[in-house]
Design goal:
Oligomer: single chain
Radius of gyration: 19 Å
Strand order of the largest sheet: 1-2-3-4-5-8-7-6
Number of helices: 10
Order of helices and strands: HEHEHEHHEHEHEEEEEEHHH
Strand content: 15-25%
Largest sheet: 8 strands, mixed
Low-confidence stretches: none
Shape: globular
CATH architecture: Alpha-Beta Barrel
C-alpha cells in the first residue's frame, strides 16, 4: 500500500467507528515513507500507536510527538545480550534498551512485548518483572502462538498460569482492572512503578471480546490473527469500488474461535495443518 492508500483506507475504517490505529511490522520504522504515513494518520481523530523493535526509535522522537503518539510497544524477548543476538541476529540489545529508556524519559507509555518460549526465555520472567520496580514500563508476556515458519510446538508454550506461579514464588502482586476489549490481563507488584501482564491467546482465548482487525502491508484484511481467509481491500480501492461492503463482508466471515483453525485446547493443535502467513507478513 502507498501512503495515500493507507490514508484513504484508514479514513473509511474511522467512518465505520474505528478509534485506534496501530502501525506494526515487520518493523515500521524502516519504511522510507514512515514519517509521511504517520503524519497522514495524525489528522484523524484516533489514538495512534505503533509496535517496534526499538532499534531506530531515537531517530523518530520528534515525529512521534508531532503525530500525537503517546504509547509504543517494543518487542524484546530477552534481557541477555548473547541470547538477544541469537534471536535477532543483531548485537544491539544495549542500543534497544537505551532507546526504551529514552522513550520513557520523553514521556511515552512504553509496553514491552515478550513472546514466552519454553527453553528460550522462560527463565527470564522474574527478570522482566524486576525492571518494573523503578521504571514505568508495562511488561507483557505473550503466549507462543503458531504461525507459518515459526517452528511452533505445543510443548514450547509457556502458559500465563505457569508464569504467574513463577512470579508468585518471589513477589506479592495485585490484579489490576482490565479495560473492555483488553487482550492483556494486568498485574502489579505493590509500590512498583510499572506493571506486568499476560496475553493468554493459547491457554485462555478471549475471542468473544476481541474487536481487533488487521490490514496487511499488501492491503488484505484479516478479521482474526489466525484466520486463513483474507479479503483484498486494496484491490477494491484501486478499482475505484466502495470498500465498505468489502470490510463488512470480511467482518461477517469472522469465526467464533481462533479464526476457525483450532479450538480452545492448544495442546491438540497440529501446526502443520494451519493455513496462515508468518507473523512478519501478517504484521505483528
Amino acid at each position: 500500500m502507498q501512503p495515500e492508500e493507507i490514508e484513504a483506507i484508514a479514513h473509511t475504517f474511522i467512518t465505520l467507528g474505528v478509534k485506534k490505529i496501530r502501525l506494526t511490522g515487520g518493523e515500521p520504522l524502516v519504511r522510507k515513507e514512515f514519517k509521511d504515513i504517520l503524519l497522514r494518520l495524525n489528522k484523524f481523530p484516533v489514538a495512534l500507536t505503533l509496535t517496534t523493535n526499538g532499534l531506530f526509535a531515537d531517530q523518530y522522537i520528534r515525529e512521534f510527538h508531532e503525530a500525537g503518539v503517546n504509547s509504543l510497544n517494543v518487542s524484546i524477548d530477552t534481557l541477555k545480550p548473547d541470547k538477544f543476538k541469537a534471536i535477532t541476529r543483531r548485537d544491539s540489545l544495549q542500543k534497544v534498551w537505551q532507546n526504551i529508556l529514552l522513550l520513557v524519559d520523553e514521556g511515552f507509555h512504553v509496553k514491552l512485548n515478550i513472546v514466552a518460549m519454553k527453553g528460550v526465555n522462560d527463565d527470564e520472567v522474574l527478570d522482566f518483572v524486576a525492571v518494573t520496580k523503578d521504571l514505568p514500563l508495562h511488561v507483557r508476556f505473550i503466549e507462543f502462538m503458531p504461525f507459518s515458519g515459526n517452528q511452533w510446538e505445543k510443548d514450547r508454550v509457556v502458559s500465563a498460569k505457569t508464569m504467574l506461579d513463577t512470579v508468585a514464588k518471589k513477589y506479592s502482586f495485585i490484579k489490576l482492572d482490565d479495560k473492555k476489549h483488553a487482550t492483556a490481563k494486568k498485574y502489579q507488584v505493590p509500590g512498583y512503578a510499572g506493571t506486568f501482564a499476560f496475553i493468554t491467546t493459547m491457554s485462555e482465548p478471549f475471542c468473544g471480546d476481541c474487536n481487533r482487525m488487521r490490514l496487511t502491508a499488501d492491503g488484505k484484511m484479516k478479521n482474526c490473527l489466525f484466520s486463513k481467509q483474507e479479503i483484498s481491500i486494496l484491490d477494491a480501492l484501486r478499482k475505484g469500488d466502495d470498500i465498505v461492503p468489502v470490510i463488512k463482508k470480511c467482518l461477517g466471515m469472522k469465526q467464533a474461535v481462533m479464526g476457525g483453525q483450532f479450538d480452545k485446547t492448544f495442546e491438540t493443535v497440529d501446526s502443520a495443518k494451519l493455513q496462515n502467513r508468518s507473523m512478519i507478513h501478517i504484521g505483528g
